[in-house]
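Problem 12. The chain below contains 306 residues. Write out its predicted structure in token notation.
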Amino acid sequence: MKRKKVEDLKIDGETSLSELIDQYGSAGGFTAKKVSLARDILENMFHEECTNFLSFPACIISTGTRGIIKEAVKNGLFDVMITTCGTLDHDLARVWEDYYHGSFNADDSTLYKEGVNRLGNIFIPNSSYGQVIEDNMQPILEEIVEERGAKLSTKEIIWEFGKRLKDKDSILYWAAKNQVPIFVPGITDGAFGTQLWMYWQRNKDFHIDLMKDQEDLADIVFPAQESGALMIGGGISKHHTIWWNQFRGGLDHAVYITTAVEYDGSLSGARLREAISWGKIRDMANRVTVEGDATVLLPLIIGGFL
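Solution.
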């Protein structure tokens, strides 16, 4: 059996990001090699015949990684996004107010007294989150319902919000502009969902049509010649992605970024090989699980495509 030689990395001031990732593939270095393989799988996904999914949790949208997701949507890398309600919260809140650098080691009792919420090492003042979302969302909801009626899917209401934003740093802005659907199966699990509920208190005809989201996903998944996914973290966003793709025999291409362990049986910890047993990823799919922090790995993996 012929074996591939491990090469040393050669980096200088003129080495580009793409050249560095190319070297990761020949250096044989643990996670670095997986990063290179992930980039190669995405390159195979990005063609017209492949329907590409991006799933991710809300937490990274509180960080500068929001900019990477935004650029991916702006540049049309993905056809579908599946995420959590908090993504809407953070994207909208950061349109209207700022988030700040903090510390994992901050005194949380003190922060609470000061009206500051800690998300890892990000500080989010109350004024940058709940209140600003309520103040801005309610008038927009009134306008949307007046124009579109009281029955909307998560995809539809997210697009309607995106159409009304002028901030080009917003994920929702570019999703609406480029008609990239965002599905949020757990729409009530966050400030955005709470504001929908508060609006419903005054307008009982208003409701979110989750079955329309399912119909729209079916119209995307079943005709797909190929399907691929970049999945960041686990939970409902990852599961909704692989769940729907099982109906077409599984994903053909899959990249998964996670910090979770496998031994507790969680979906976040589940490696892609486990999904093969459910028919959610094809046995012969191009796939890799990359262990590590998405705020570090995501710019490396998709930066060369932006």
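Discussion. Residues 130-148 form the longest helix (19 residues). Students who got a different answer should revisit the alignment rule from Section 12.3.
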